[in-house]
Specification:
The chain has 281 residues and is α+β, with helices and mostly antiparallel strands. 36% of the residues lie in helices and 25% in strands. The protein has eleven helices and 13 strands. The strands form four sheets. It has a five-stranded antiparallel β-sheet. Strands 9-10-8-13 form a four-stranded antiparallel β-sheet, sandwiched between helices. A hairpin with a 2-residue loop joins strand 1 and strand 2.
């Protein structure tokens, strides 16, 4: 996975983790006999464990090879008789264009099996691959499609950054926005991913930030996307704990209140007031 987006000749390559069961399904062809012959010890136990999941559990799928012009409704119709939870999310590349892939959350095991039966069927004369994926992959590609009354609407993600971009660079890029926090992410080897998550002060700041979409930071243009508060917490939790950018609170406290930037300012103001008071004395 550390080689993700590295070049093989003239093209960069995307690397994705998949389930063993998905590997078997995708590489064994259409013959169930072949699938049975390469089933490893423990796979049957895994299947039994999956079957124990009740109807309230969600499953996730990834679709590949979708026509660029296919709409969410058309993709939903393609997944005939499948009950989808929420939206179908088209996956975009660093240029913001559709990659031909999409992810969706499926209601239960029965609907998952229906979705997998659509594998290799045609949509607009194109063969579409349908496979099971995991919650992590699904969450990675969620985009914000509506305002949430229960969450702060003050979070954005920047994609396509130059690898040497710093927190100061991002604040300069968002020069007309009040920035509470910037989290630059890295891969398993500690190398920059080209992504950053930003907590802004108000929804007005988000609107200003969105106006910078596709503007250049040095030699690369940057994609600016709104994200959910819960997604921000999930994506930045590992990095803020390493860098110490945020107060050392419990995860529950963090999810309950993301006003860390404001709290930091308040503490600084209180310290300044104490210092001024001591000077006066």
């Amino acid at each position: 996975v550390a080689h993700n987006r590295e070049y093989l000749r003239e093209r960069f390559v995307l690397i994705e983790e998949i389930y063993e069961s998905q590997y078997i399904r995708e590489t064994s062809g259409k013959s169930k006999k072949d699938e049975k012959s390469i089933t490893k010890p423990g796979m049957e136990a895994e299947k039994v464990e999956q079957d124990k999941k009740g109807p309230g559990n969600n499953f996730y799928i990834i679709l590949r090879g979708l026509p660029e012009k296919a709409t969410e409704d058309e993709i939903g119709s393609f997944l005939v008789d499948c009950e989808i939870v929420g939206n179908i999310y088209r996956i975009t590349n660093e240029a913001g264009r559709s990659s031909g892939d999409a992810v969706a959350k499926i209601l239960n095991k029965i609907n998952l099996e229906r979705a997998l039966q659509c594998n290799r069927k045609c949509l607009m004369e194109r063969s579409v691959f349908v496979a099971e994926t995991d919650m992590e992959t699904y969450n990675k590609h969620i985009i914000k499609v509506e305002k949430m009354d229960t969450e702060e609407n003050t979070f954005i993600r920047l994609r396509g950054l130059v690898w040497s971009a710093t927190e100061e660079d991002i604040k300069a890029f968002l020069h007309d926005c009040n920035v509470n926090e910037v989290v630059l992410t890295t891969n398993d080897r500690g190398r920059p991913t080209g992504n950053a998550f930003v907590h802004l002060d108000t929804e007005a700041d988000v609107e200003k930030a969105m106006a910078h979409n596709r503007e250049h930071l040095r030699e690369r243009f940057v994609l600016v996307e709104e994200i959910y508060e819960s997604q921000y917490i999930r994506e930045t939790k590992e990095f803020v704990s390493q860098t110490g950018n945020v107060n050392k609170k419990s995860e529950t406290e963090l999810e309950g209140n993301l006003e860390n930037g404001k709290e930091a300012k308040k503490r600084k103001t209180e310290k300044d007031e104490i210092a001024d008071h001591m000077d006066c004395n």
